């Protein structure tokens, strides 16, 4: 392309390998932290796969990047952190999914969570991203950020934010409208 050509006038790139899954499949990516919120997201992921029938399940855990330096000691430390994170993720998934754990595709990545999850969604051509949410105040979300909020804002596919079901502090309607 010459420097005078407008890049928007370029012909689209043909992608014979896209989409990367069969038409009747519905790949789902569950992004988990190894806590109760991650357990909740994984349970929703498993439930959705059962109701759909042909939904390959991907489970991802993102390890925060400690240092972007390319030095050998840092790279070795990061590789060790990824190996440890994969072992922890395998144990977590085995505990949560039981016999179904063998069918899940596990991914551990290092980087910024929102960008890394979005890249995984693209790489595996997922139809839905399931993510748990921590109950944080507005100040904490502003200070630390919110992965689920960042995914909802930036994703190019549906995002399900799995929060625990709890209506205990709410008052039900005395006489709900009848179904019509």
Measure the end-to-end span. 60 Å
Biggest β-sheet: count, sense, barrel?
5 strands, parallel
Secondary-structure-based class equals: alpha/beta
CATH hierarchy, class: Alpha Beta
What is the CATH superfamily classification? Answer: HUPs
CATH-derived topology: Rossmann fold
Q: What is the number of helical segments per DSSP (H or I, 4+ residues)?
A: 5
Biggest sheet strand line-up: 3-2-1-4-5
User: Can you name the CATH architecture?
Assistant: 3-Layer(aba) Sandwich
- Taking pLDDT < 50 over at least 5 consecutive residues as the criterion, the unreliable ranges are none
Number of domains: 1
3D shape? globular
Overall pLDDT confidence: 83
Radius of gyration: 20 Å
Give a structural overview.
- The structure is a single chain.
- With 180 residues, the chain is of the alpha/beta class.
- The protein has one domain (20-162): Rossmann fold.
- The chain is 38% helix and 14% strand.
- The protein contains 5 helices and 5 strands.
- It has helices spanning 36-52, 72-97, 113-123, 138-144, 147-154; strands at 28-31, 57-63, 105-110, 128-132, 159-162.
- The chain has a 5-stranded parallel sheet with strand order 3-2-1-4-5, sandwiched between helices.
- Helix 3 packs across helix 5.
- It is globular, with a radius of gyration of 20 Å.
Topology, element by element:
Layout: E1 28-31, H1 36-52, E2 57-63, H2 72-97, E3 105-110, H3 113-123, E4 128-132, H4 138-144, H5 147-154, E5 159-162
Parallel strand pairs: 1-2, 1-4, 2-3, 4-5
Helix pairs in contact: 1-2, 3-5
